[in-house]
Amino acid sequence: MRVPIEWLGHYVDLSTDLHPVELAERLTMFDLKVEEIDAVGADITGPLVIGHVLSFESEKHTNGKTVRWCQVDVGEDVPRGIVCGADNFAAGDLIVASLPGATLPGGFEIAARKTYGHVSDGMICSTVELGMHGDPGGILVLESRAGAVGDDAIALLGMRADVLDLEVNPDRGYALSMRGIARDAAIALGTAFHDPAAIVVEAVGDSYPARVDDAGACPVFVTRTVSGFDATRSTPRWLARRIELAGMRSISLAVDITNYVMLELGQPIHGYDRAKLQGPIVVRRATAGEKVTTLDDVERVLTTETLLITDDSGPLGLAGVMGGQSTELSATTTDIVIESANFEAALVARTARRFKLPSEASKRFERGVDPALPVYAAQRVAALLVKYGGGSIDAGMTVIGEAAEPVPIVIDDGLPAAVTGIDIDAATAVAALQANGCTVDHRSERLIITPPTWRPDLVDPYDVVEEVLRVVGYDKVPSILPTAPAGRGLTRPQSLHRRISGALASTGLIEVKTFPFAGPSDWDRLGLDADDTRRRQVLLENPLSAQEPGMTTILLAGLLKTLALNIGRGHGDIALFETGSVFLPKVANADAPIPGVRHRPSDEELSALDEALPDQPRHGAWVITGRREPSGWWGEGRNVSWADAVDVVREVARLLDVDIEIQTADMMPWHPGRCAAVLIDGRVIGHAGELHPRVAKNYGLTKRAAIAEIDLDAIVAAASPVVAAPAFSTFPVAKEDIALVVDDTVTASAVTNALRTASDLIESVRLFDLYQGDQLAAGKKSLAFSLRMRAPNRTLDVNELKAVRDAALQAAQDVTGAVLRS
Known about the structure:
This protein is of the alpha+beta class and 822 residues long. Helix content is 26%, strand content 27%. The radius of gyration is 39 Å and the shape is elongated.
């Protein structure tokens, strides 16, 4: 909401020495956040004066252009000669002349220069050249009573103005009006407030006939008629300027007045050309397939959820959003029917979003408009139309419905002090609430508060506390850190999760955090089948993006987008990881109850909330691409392979002393031949390997990528509560290498596990070679292992070593069918 300070000063007493920065700070502390102070016209410098066109000569030049050589009185002894290409002014008119040395908006400097055979000693200005809305080719012609020749035009036209740009919270619809902001400013500054809606409404009988078929969607509907209006009259300069400074465009007198009152009071107004109306105005729901052409010249097909304004000819407009073309005001309009109504907020919001048609009216209705305003707004518009456009106000006013009485809120008079931590007595709370327009009845240590009609957001005790605190001052809230209870610290799972993050960073991975949102397009890019359980999501009520309507079920969805983003910015060798929760719904489309805030939720409500919550295991995921080992003076580097993702999994398991098993698997988005499942006690907790080439193409990746995602909660749960210290022996180690031939479907980890468990004297088993070639039968491969054998209390002799070796070979044969390679 843009708030010209000059306009604001008409409704609240502002001190002449109040700086805009101080006003902005006071409003921001009053919960009306000022985003920017726009010093409009600060770049304009004079001389910019009122000029009087004494005479002119029209000259047609060889290039076909006709210009006027004008003699202009600018309040000096001698008139100035100025060349002008426009022709919408006459001798005797008052205009705005920018003289040499002036600077117009945009840094446009004015100097005397020769053009079309004359030295033009200045410029006759159009509205656009002055930074105002209007005809870019037409000169701004002033009224005869605008001022004296030679007067400063900058002040006359209000070309310099300080405008506050406010960020209005969705629950503060009243702040989308000068009236609402002025009321808050008066409280914040401790000065008087002059309500522009405090006007007397006199009406006898009804005005233009109307009917409301859906009172719930339109609780109040008002019409008033102005007859004999002169639509050819121009908008007063001050009114047009205020509208422009507030961010709207001046269009015509009648439309400008309706927009002015909307900005002033916060009540959207619509005007109809009475001659174009056919029968009474009716507020009703649309029928399926019904159509209306709105003011933006777009034909829209309606649904039964759409609320319409109609007459006997059909739809006239979308209620609370935008009017239609059929009854649009024009230069021939003489009788105007004013519509001032209140529409249900959620209904207007849905209509504006369904048709992608946000408007100034819908922006206000969907935040909540004062239902008591329509009568006063209609009267205000009618009075301005007659004042500046002539004609008369018809005697009657049609009023259908009335504003609902606000629901009282009852609180203990000590609640504001208890919640804020400030010593706020009951009298202070009562005064603060009354300043905000509330009616307060203080009895038996209770406050019975009736909110004003313009505050539909005040519905519970803590809304009331916030209103009291706004007046008392947020800066009065003490900054006190709560004392941590003794004996508390990180839980064991929290500590282990931190250790895992540290271990991942130590392997060269960089931690990132992505948004936990995903959608069908992400599952498609990942190549997930239509029946893949990972497609089942917890959907959000109001997602940030329609393409990501729910919570993610796999961290790789966001991590791969981050990888692609970094590659697109010129990075080549990238290793990223993320730890965070994924969200796995228990029941499809389970709806959680929404408890109130007046009391603690019941055990049944808490149980239902817990039941509706999704499972939220903590996962870890990483992606690595490019060079895993860089080239240098030490030799050639190494590109990333699928094994790098598996090695990081092994490092995490080693850190927590957890035994994991690696098996071949087939799972998207991994390469079908380079995918490993990670198991603990036979249960799959994740996968690691190479990214599927088709998925890599979907993300725009040109190099191979190693990826992994595992359930960190599962690996933390399997970690031993007591980590045994490693045993050391002073006796010598015996080493022996063996090569075993197995089927190519047998995993190296299965053979390793069989060898390691054959004897307690086997200290370690390490795979150091894999061979597949002509020297082996088809479907076979050779795995070479290095065995380290040692006893804790003696040196092993030859016979013991042979027995350990034979036991290892037998165990490998029994488990995997391995035979010693000859």
